[in-house]
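Sample entry follows:

:::
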Amino acid sequence: MALVDVTKTDIVEPSAAYPLPAISRWLAKRRVERQRRLALQSLLFAPEHRLRDLGISHDELLRAIAQRH
């Protein structure tokens, strides 16, 4: 009877062993990024005085849209 060498077992990445949770997390992240982008883009069409009331400028919105998380 042969002994099994447990020190040389291959360790599988959690995302490779369980792909569905990894895909679910990726989809959730994409959904949040899309909602953020759509919210910022909708603010671009707001009148300047409303943005000023919120303390936001068009330049800040453009920088926020260009920024990727």
In short: Residues 28 and 34 are 10 Å apart (CA to CA). The chain has four helices and no strands. The chain has a mean pLDDT of 82. Residues 18-66 form one domain.
